[in-house]
């Protein structure tokens, strides 16, 4: 599966790994971005996103901010992420 058609979970995982973070660190960064300190989603919740068990609807704006991801153009509907997600990559929240 190419990153262009990868579910959002695969893009999330690749983006935090590229930064050298862990699942708990991603949760802390999301909590900070939300403005409630480091009490963001836990490792289990991040894992569910990665495995496609849940779509991070509430956390999506914070994921975009923290991981520096781009959402697809609503008119286009297709993600444009390259094979190795980097700052500015696209996520498709409808893939799960």
Question: What can you tell me about this protein's structure?
Answer:
The longest helix has 12 residues, at 23-34. α2 (23-34) packs across α3. The chain is globular. The protein has helices spanning 8-18, 23-34, 43-51, 60-67, and strands at 69-70, 89-90. The model is unreliable at 1-5 and 77-86 (pLDDT under 50). It contains 4 helices and 2 strands, in the order ααααββ. The two termini are 14 Å apart. The chain is mainly α and 96 residues long. The protein has a two-stranded parallel sheet.
Radius of gyration: 12 Å
Q: What gross morphology would you assign?
A: globular
**Count of helical segments?**
4
Mean pLDDT: 76
Low-confidence stretches: 1-5, 77-86
Q: H/E order of the elements?
A: HHHHEE
Instruction: Give the CA-CA distance, first to last residue.
Output: 14 Å
Question: Which characteristics define this entry?
Answer:
single chain; 96 residues; mainly alpha; two-stranded parallel ribbon; 2 strands; 4% strand; globular
Summarize this, please?
The chain is 42% helix and 4% strand.
Give the topology, please:
Elements: H1 8-18, H2 23-34, H3 43-51, H4 60-67, E1 69-70, E2 89-90
Parallel strand pairs: 1-2
Helix pairs in contact: 1-3, 2-3, 2-4
């Amino acid at each position: 599966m190419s990153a262009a058609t990868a579910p959002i979970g695969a893009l999330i995982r690749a983006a935090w790994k590229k930064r050298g973070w862990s699942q708990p660190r991603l949760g802390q960064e999301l909590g900070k971005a939300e403005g409630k300190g480091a009490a963001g989603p836990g490792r289990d919740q991040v894992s569910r996103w990665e495995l496609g068990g849940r779509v991070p609807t509430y956390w999506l704006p914070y994921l975009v901010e923290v991981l520096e991801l781009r959402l697809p153009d609503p008119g286009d509907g297709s993600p444009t992420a390259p094979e190795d997600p980097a700052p500015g990559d696209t996520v498709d929240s409808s893939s799960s």
